[in-house]
Amino acid sequence: MFAIINLNGIQYKIEKNSILYVNRILKNDGEIFSINKCICFKKKEKILIGNPFLNCNIKIKILQHFKGKKIIIFKKKRRKGYKVKNGHRQNLSKIQILDIKL
Q1: Which of 16, 32, 88, 99 has a Cα at 20 to 30 A from 42?
Q2: pLDDT band at residue 102, thresholds of 50, 70 and 90?
Q3: Would you say 69 and 83 are in contact if contact means Cβ atoms under 8 Å apart?
Q4: 9, 41 in Cβ contact below 8 A?
Q5: What's the start-to-end Cα distance of the chain, in Å?
Q6: Which residue ranges make up each domain of the chain?
Q7: What one-character DSSP code corresponds to residue 25?
């Protein structure tokens, strides 16, 4: 059994008890919240596709918030003496899918 949900504008394929790393969710650590819209749902051989969404109940627990690996952005123009080095660390949340019900 799996479902496809839209979380913060990005689609994720989820299963029960799976752990995902997603963009920062503005809730506290350990908080449990639910989503009631999914795009696609599959159980055994039965596939349901929403138009645009299905009504379902998905419980999600936030395990922790952290920053991801540093990404280096390096810009250079040859023969001009122009070099710029920047870095970026994305804010992420680690979540666990507790329950999926249609």
Answers
A1: 32
A2: confident
A3: no
A4: no
A5: 11
A6: 2-101
A7: P
- pTM for this one? 0.82
**Chain segment 5-61, per-residue pLDDT in tens:** 999 899 999 999 999 999 999 999 999 999 999 999 999 899 999 998 999 999 999
Find out whether 43 and 101 touch, Cβ atoms under 8 Å.
no
Q: DSSP label at 15?
A: -
The C-alpha angle 42, 43, 49, rounded to 5 degrees, equals 30
Q: What pLDDT was estimated at residue 25?
A: 94
| CA nearest to 67, candidates 45, 42, 94 | 94
Task: Judge whether residue 99 has pLDDT over 90.
Answer: yes
Number of residues assigned to the chain: 102
For residue 50, give the amino acid letter: G
Residue 34 structure tokens = 């639910």
Measured in whole angstroms, how far is the alpha carbon of residue 23 from the centre of its chain?
A: 6
Q: CB 78: neighbour CB atoms within 10 A?
A: 6
